[in-house]
């Protein structure tokens, strides 16, 4: 009988403690004031707004993000720690005061660039440095000047000149010569080319150019 009374008393005592703690917690929550936190987030130079910054209270699981012009607004409780994070910028934390007379806070927050220095990475096309050295030693390098000298030889230049089409000036000159020859044929017989000094001049120039040589 005594044991049952003792267990009943213990149970009532524990229940009383449980409800007392709940009441204390409820009073603490009621005592915390709701604050409207708002502001603008700028870059380090305070020249441009930063959009898309994550703004949240880690312990409460609530938050928001800054808009297109860096503006944000969210309700918080007195004593909350608000975190501002963005990729490439240093994370910042704002502590809401525990006691406030006003029910709103306005911030102008500047976020600094978060510079991350990575270790140097050496990229090589061979598994080991020794194999890379052997490949460089065995490499057969062609002198670019030798290629240039071969392309600038008289034989190569003459071959290119023979294969090149006539320029605009040459086409116009041949057209003018054809027109003059047609006009001459209208008024008399064609002159003998062997007696034409201009024809002899063209013939001599063609010999100097090598036009009469047999092409390969």
UniProtKB/TrEMBL annotation:
Keywords: Carboxypeptidase, Hydrolase, Protease. This is Carboxypeptidase-like protein. Pfam families: CarbopepD_reg_2 (PF13715). The keyword Hydrolase applies. SUPFAM superfamilies: Carboxypeptidase regulatory domain-like (SSF49464). One of its GO terms (molecular function) is carboxypeptidase activity. The keyword Hydrolase applies. InterPro entries: CarboxyPept-like_regulatory (IPR008969).
């Amino acid at each position: 009988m005594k044991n049952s009374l003792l267990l009943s008393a213990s149970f009532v005592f524990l229940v009383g403690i449980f409800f007392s703690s709940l009441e204390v917690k409820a009073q603490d929550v009621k005592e915390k004031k709701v604050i409207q936190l708002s502001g603008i987030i700028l870059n380090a130079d305070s020249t441009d707004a930063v959009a898309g910054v994550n703004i949240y209270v880690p312990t409460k699981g609530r938050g928001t993000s800054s808009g297109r012009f860096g503006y944000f607004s969210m309700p918080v409780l007195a004593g909350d720690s608000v975190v501002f994070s963005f990729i490439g910028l240093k994370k910042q934390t704002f502590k809401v005061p525990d006691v406030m007379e006003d029910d709103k806070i306005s911030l102008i927050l500047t976020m600094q660039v978060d510079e991350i220095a990575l270790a140097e990475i050496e990229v090589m096309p061979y598994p080991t440095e020794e194999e890379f050295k052997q490949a460089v030693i065995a490499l057969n390098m062609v002198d670019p000047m030798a290629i240039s000298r071969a392309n600038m030889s008289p034989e190569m230049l003459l071959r290119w000149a023979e294969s090149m089409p006539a320029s605009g000036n040459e086409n116009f000159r041949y057209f003018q010569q054809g027109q003059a020859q047609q006009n001459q044929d209208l008024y008399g017989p064609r002159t003998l080319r062997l007696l034409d000094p201009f024809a002899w001049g063209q013939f001599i120039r063609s010999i100097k150019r090598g036009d009469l040589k047999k092409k390969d």
